[in-house]
Amino acid sequence: MNGHIFSKYIPKPEEEKGFEQLLHLFLQLLQYTNGDVAEALDWLNQLDLQHNLTNNAYGMGNFIQDLKDKGYIQENPVDGKFNPTSKTNQSIRKNSLDEVFGKLKKGSKGNHTIQKSGLGDEINSDIRPYTFGDSLDQIDLNTSLKNAQINHGISDFKLTEDDLAVRERDYKTQTSTVLMIDISHSMILYGEDRITPAKKVAMALAELIKTRYPKDTLDIIVFGNDAWPIEIKDLPYLQVGPYHTNTYAGLELALEILRKKRNPNKQIFMITDGKPTCLKEGNGYYQNSFGLDRKVINKTLNMAAQARRLNIPITTFMIASDPYLQQFVQEFTETNKGKAYYSNLNGLGDFVFEDFEKNRKKKLR
Questions:
Q1: Dist. CA 82–CA 35, nearest whole Å
Q2: In this structure, which topology does domain 175-360 adopt according to CATH?
Q3: What is the rounded CA–CA span in Å between residue 259 and residue 253?
Q4: CA dist list (Å): 66 to 28, 69, 73, 82
Q5: CA–CA separation, 37 and 73 (whole Å)
Q6: Which of 112, 153, 223, 301 is 20 to 30 A removed from 168 (C-alpha atoms)?
Q7: Domain locations in the chain?
Q8: How many CA atoms are closer than 13 Å to the CA of 256, on its beta-carbon side?
Q9: Could you tell me the CA-to-CA distances from 23 to 53, 96, 105, 331 in Å, in that order?
Q10: Which of 1-10, 19-28, 58-67, 231-240 has the lowest mean pLDDT?
Q11: H/E/C letters for each residue in 238-302?
Q12: CB atoms within 10 A of CB 13
C-alpha cells in the first residue's frame, strides 16, 4: 500500500516575492478603503494594470487565492463578501511598528525593571532572611528547610521564623496609557492627509505594547464633536468625520478611564492638528473655529489642571504649525506640566516612542 510523504512546502522564489509585494500594497490599500476588501483589490488590480505588478508566473488570481488560503481574508457566508481577518489587522499593526519604530532594537518581552527590589512579580536569584511584612509566597521553601536542619538538627526538627528565607523579586513598573486621536475634519483639510500617519503611530504603539509590554494597558479614544473609545482592531480603518475639535471631551473620557486603572503610572498621549473649537452643551454644541475662544480654551485648560492634580502627565503631539495652535499648546502644557512636541508627519513616530519609553520607566509624581 502506497502512503503519502509530507514535507514542508517551499514556494518558488518568484511566487513568494510576488505574494509579499502584493500583500504589502494590499494592507496599505485596506487602510484607505476602511477595510473594504473588494475596493482594495479593485485598486490593486488597477495598479497592476498600470505598473505590471504581476506576471505569468503569479497573477492576481493567485494572490487572491493565497489571501484566502493564508487566512488574510474570509468570505461572509451570508452575502459572499470578503472581510479582513484578525491576522490581517495584526499584520497592519506590525507593518506600522516596523515603519514607525524601525530603529527599535529587539529586546525581551515584559516590563521594564527599575533599580529597586522588593514586592514585585518576577523572582530573581537573591535570597535573604525573612523579615516581618514579607509576603508568604516569597518564602523559599528549600532554603528554609535547609536552615532548619542546620540550626536544629534532623532528630529534633522544627521550623522557626529565624529559619525562613525569602527570594527577592524585581520590582517592575507597569503603565496605563490612553492614546487620544483627533478625527476632526481638519485632519484631512486642504488636501493634506494627517489622519493616516496618526493611525500608523497609534497602530505601532498598540503593537509595541502588546508585544514588548504585555502587562501594560492601552486604551484608545477618538475625539471630534464628542469622544468615544475604539478597539485596537478598528485602528486601521479609522475615518475622519465632519467634526470640530472637542479636546475637553477627549480629556474627560481619558481621565475617567485612567481613574479605574490600578497601575501607579498613568499617562495620556494626544495626537492632534488643531486647537479646541467645540464644547457639548445640553443636547447641542457650542462651536467656534475662529481664533482662540476663551470659553472653549479655559474649560480645556481646567481639564489639563485636573490631570496634573491626579499626577497624570499629558504629552501632546502637534502636527501643524498654526500660531493660534502653538499659543494654546503653550498654555496647555504649562498648566499640565506635561510635554509638547511640534513635528512634521514623518517625525511623529520617533517622538511617540521616545517619550513612551521615558515616561514608563519611573513612577510619575
A1: 10
A2: Rossmann fold (3.40.50)
A3: 10
A4: 17, 5, 9, 13
A5: 8
A6: 153
A7: 13-84, 119-170, 175-360
A8: 11
A9: 11, 14, 25, 45
A10: 1-10
A11: CCCCCCCCCHHHHHHHHHHHHHCCCCCEEEEEEEECCCCCEEEECCEEEECCCCCCHHHHHHHHH
A12: 9
210-238: per-residue pLDDT in tens? 888 888 899 999 999 999 999 998 998 88
- The DSSP output letter for 183 is -
pLDDT tens sequence across 54-111? 888 888 999 999 999 999 999 888 888 899 998 998 898 888 887 776 655 444 444 4
Report the side by side order of strands in the sheet with 122-129.
113-118, 165-172, 122-129
Q: What is the pTM of this model?
A: 0.69
**pLDDT tens digits, residue range 149-199?**
888 877 777 888 888 888 876 555 688 999 999 999 888 876 778 888 888
Output the furthest CA–CA distance in the chain (Å, rounded): 89
Rounded (10°) angle between helices 86-100 and 195-212: 100
Q: What is the pLDDT of residues 28-48, one digit of tens each?
A: 888 888 888 999 999 999 998
| Angle at alpha carbon of residue 71, lines to 19 and 45, rounded to 5° | 40
Nearest to 243 by CA among 277, 199, 217: 277
CB 286 within 8 A of CB 244: no
Among candidate residues 121, 133, 226, 244, the one with its CA nearest the CA of residue 173:
121
Q: Strands 217-223 and 122-129: what pairing? A: unpaired
Q: What does the mean pLDDT of the chain come to?
A: 81
Backbone angles phi, psi at 156, to 5 degrees: -120, 60
C-alpha cell at 57: 508566473
Separation CA 319–CA 272 (nearest Å): 7
Q: What is the pairing mode between strands 217-223 and 227-230?
A: antiparallel
What totals of helices (H) and strands (E) does the chain contain, helices first?
10, 13
* Cβ atoms of residues 29 and 88 within 8 Å: no
* Rounded-to-integer distance, Cα 233 and Cα 210, Å: 13
Q: How far apart (Å, rounded) are the C-alpha atoms in residues 178 and 329?
A: 19
Q: What is the DSSP letter of 74?
A: E
